Amino acid sequence: MRVRTTAALAAVSSLALLTGCGAADMTEQASPFANAQGAKTVTLSVQSWVGAQSNVAVAQYILEHELGYRVDTVQVDEVPAWDALSQGRVDALLEDWGHPEQEQRYVKDKKTIAPGGDLGVTGHIGWYVPTYFAKQHPDVTNWKNLNKYADQFRTPESGSKGQLMDGSPSYVTNDKALVKNLKLDYRVVFAGSEAAQITQIRQFAKEKKPFLTYWYTPQWLFEKVPMTEVKLPEYKEGCDADPKKVACAYPHTPLQKYLNADFAENGGKAAAFLKKFEWTTEDQNEVSLMIADQKMTPEDAAKKWVDSHESTWKKWLS
Q: What tens digit of pLDDT does each residue of 200-221 get?
């Protein structure tokens, strides 16, 4: 189950500035280009985290510069994105972390959404501590020892308990249930957005302070702040079926693409290209690092990646 949310977005050129904004309900807000009669346009759904923005940046660049499409992008919450995709308000969603209820409703039952294939990237959510702290206290990487370190992870925001830092309060996570069900002396504290969480992590790291945070791979920040995962109870199929009773780790999830069913069938070269769009974690992180750390615009980052990886993306056009 993937776990983030997003906000209204007009163009991919603004992506780097909008990570972590408030949410918009796309069931009420259509793209001005979606379903435009006779127009050679594609509308892509964009999530707020930079890896997903990297997918869209590269896809948009190739659609526009190689296939001659006009691309519109709209940022929207994960679950409403499925509604928008079903209704044809957006044509494609390029990074889904697993929404079984929506998949059952729209793909299997209503058949208004079609699978678009693997993105090529495997996602994983977990709890992490800075590697410098893990080297000093190796046993912290076992969840059973977290209470031993609760005092060291305390912050003004967490009060008398240790802090488990999450991103946005609108993220769908298992963390509060995990803290309760594993009887951990911690409080989940929300940074507010991915960008705010990154800022806080980097500040902790600069001061060499201990911290415990919800985080995920792939993510470019690991190259700047090495972090070590805390091993939670082993994930087994179905252990997260009841959100209130979750007491296991997050799964490793092969990330998927989804297309509006009509677009998948009648979207021509654009649909065929998006179905073939598949790259590696290293590819995604390369673009993400350019956007988030080097402060390049998504378009410039996409162009730089496209210019140096022709052998990869040419296959998506064949």
A: 999 999 999 999 999 999 999 9
Tokens 């980052």 -> residue? 301
Rounded to the nearest 10°, the torsion over CA 94, 2, 51, 111 is 0
Task: Look at the alpha carbons of 201, 81, 21, 220 in this order and tell me if their dihedral is positive or negative.
Answer: positive
CA–CA dist 299, 296 (Å, integer): 8
268 residue type, one letter: G
Q: How far apart are CA 263 and CA 139, in angstroms?
A: 51
Q: What is the rounded distance in angstroms from the CA atom of residue 229 to the CA atom of residue 200?
A: 18
Closest among 173, 167, 168, 4 to 81, alpha carbons compared: 4
In angstroms, rounded to a whole number, what is the distance separating the alpha carbons of residues 36 and 41?
A: 8
Compute CA distances 218 → 154, 179, 228, 254, 284, whole Å.
Answer: 27, 24, 14, 11, 8
pLDDT in tens, 263-315: 999 999 999 999 999 999 999 999 999 998 899 999 999 999 999 999 999 99
